[in-house]
C-alpha cells in the first residue's frame, strides 16, 4: 500500500468538522466519533458546551475564538496551531459551529494542510439555516415559491457585503443571511432600493436549535428594529415567515 507524504513524515491527521447549530442532537455520528477520538480539539467559540462534553478524556481543548465583530484568534494563528499539533503526530479536530464549508474559512485551512502535506478529512455539519427553517415549520425551498436558495453573509473582512440585490429583491426569493444583525439597516436599504417590498416577510432566529433559541417574525420594513433586540448569533431568513402552527407556539417571543 502506498504511504501518503503525511504518513512517511510521521504527521498526524486533521479533521475539519461542523458541530451543527448548537444542540447536541444535531451533531452527526461521524463528528461525535471524531470528538471522542481527537487528541487536540481547536474549536470556535460558538460550539456549544454540550457538544464539547463529548470530547474524550485525552483531548486538549483550545478555544480559537471566532465571533462576528468580537475578539478572535487570527486565522494564521489557528492554522499554525493546527499544523503544529499535526506535525507532532497528534490527531487534530478543527471544530466549527454549523457547517465548515459555509462561511467557515474551510478553503484557507485546506490549502494550508495541502501545502504542508498533512492528511485531512472534512466532515459536514448541519448549518444554521436548516435548523432555523425547521423551527419555523418551513422548507427552505418549495415548489411554486422559490426555485433557488441564496446563502449570503451580511459582512466580510472588508465590511458590509455586496450581493446581487436585484435578484434577491424579486418576489418569492428566499435567502439565509448569516452575520447580518449589525448589517440589518444596510440589508434593508439595498433590498428596498432594488425593489423588494417593505411587507416582505423576514424571520430572525437567534441561537437556532439551542435551549435559548428565540424567533422574531417581522417584515423587511421592521428588520433593523428586530435585529437590535437580539444578542446571540442569529440567521436572518429573508422571504420566510413561520407557518401558522409554529407562529402560535412562538407567540411569546415574537
UniProtKB/TrEMBL annotation:
<feature type="domain" description="Tetrapyrrole methylase">
    <location>
        <begin position="14"/>
        <end position="223"/>
    </location>
</feature>
<dbReference type="GO" id="GO:0032259">
    <property type="term" value="P:methylation"/>
</dbReference>
<dbReference type="GO" id="GO:0019354">
    <property type="term" value="P:siroheme biosynthetic process"/>
</dbReference>
<keyword id="KW-0949">S-adenosyl-L-methionine</keyword>
<dbReference type="InterPro" id="IPR014776">
    <property type="entry name" value="4pyrrole_Mease_sub2"/>
</dbReference>
<dbReference type="InterPro" id="IPR035996">
    <property type="entry name" value="4pyrrol_Methylase_sf"/>
</dbReference>
<dbReference type="InterPro" id="IPR006366">
    <property type="entry name" value="CobA/CysG_C"/>
</dbReference>
<keyword id="KW-0627">Porphyrin biosynthesis</keyword>
<dbReference type="InterPro" id="IPR000878">
    <property type="entry name" value="4pyrrol_Mease"/>
</dbReference>
<keyword id="KW-0808">Transferase</keyword>
<dbReference type="Pfam" id="PF00590">
    <property type="entry name" value="TP_methylase"/>
</dbReference>
<protein>
    <recommendedName>
        <fullName>uroporphyrinogen-III C-methyltransferase</fullName>
        <ecNumber>2.1.1.107</ecNumber>
    </recommendedName>
</protein>
<dbReference type="GO" id="GO:0004851">
    <property type="term" value="F:uroporphyrin-III C-methyltransferase activity"/>
</dbReference>
<comment type="similarity">
    <text>Belongs to the precorrin methyltransferase family.</text>
</comment>
<dbReference type="InterPro" id="IPR014777">
    <property type="entry name" value="4pyrrole_Mease_sub1"/>
</dbReference>
<keyword id="KW-0489">Methyltransferase</keyword>
<comment type="pathway">
    <text>Porphyrin-containing compound metabolism; siroheme biosynthesis; precorrin-2 from uroporphyrinogen III: step 1/1.</text>
</comment>
<dbReference type="InterPro" id="IPR050161">
    <property type="entry name" value="Siro_Cobalamin_biosynth"/>
</dbReference>
